[in-house]
Amino acid sequence: MSATDPRVSSLGRPTVGKRAIEPGKVKGTMLLPAKAEVARHLRRYRAWERRMLAAPADCRIRSTFEDSGYTLCVLMGKRCAREAADAAERYLRSTLVAYLREESERPGPRPVARRGPPVSGRRSPAGR
Length: 128
Prior knowledge:
The protein is mainly alpha-helical.
């Protein structure tokens, strides 16, 4: 984008409408896909879920189900297919503003406890 581009403010910041986007104001916000795409992928995920539950031993069906879940995870920015499907359903039944507000109010992942031996004040013989 150049300085004469209408999407750039006089300060060189990207704009939305006539307002410059302030750094830090949109922290944590992601682009959301079109609702039609989300609906299509959610329908595909649910269809493969039904097929997988009907034939759990079929490796081809299970693989396709997992692929559809992964796609939904990427679209919705979630780590788990179940969370992604729930987020897609919330997104489809609400307005964009309501969905973003709801997502920002949801508790995030808890910090992971440190795993491994306890940390002591002693130094190892190698770290003299």
